Amino acid sequence: MSAISVAAPTNTVLPGAALEAARWIALAAAQDLPRAQILLGRMHEHGRGVGRDEVEAYALYSRAARSGDPLGAELRARL
Questions:
Q1: Angle in degrees, 0-180, between the axes of helices 70-78 and 34-46, rounded to the nearest 10
Q2: H/E element, 74
Q3: Rounded to an integer, what distance in angstroms lies between the CA atom of residue 62 and that of residue 8?
Q4: From the centroid of its chain, how far is CA 3?
């Protein structure tokens, strides 16, 4: 299997897919894209593709909220 995996028909994530996704999403989040920051925050919050880190999730949600994304503010408040 290659380093890039695809989702199986049952919507399970194949090995390597979450890690690869996290890498690409982190690149987008670093470009101050609020939805990428939210997605990466969710990955950190739930430990998918990255280590579980609620502090990092909060920081990413905060960055998205500062950019005016209401979902970022909502997720930050919930965390």
A1: 20
A2: helix 70-78
A3: 33
A4: 19
Give the tokens for residue 43. Answer: 């990955």
Mean pLDDT of the chain: 86
d(CA 62, CA 69): 9
* CA–CA dist 38, 57 (Å, integer): 8
| pLDDT given for residue 11 in this prediction | 55
- To the nearest 10 degrees (0 to 180), the angle between helices 34-46 and 17-30 is 140
How far apart (Å, rounded) are the C-alpha atoms in residues 56 and 8?
A: 29
CB distance 64 to 34 below 8 Å: yes
The residue assigned the tokens 């290659």 is: 2
Neighbours of 59 (CB within 10 A): 15
Predicted pLDDT of residue 62: 98
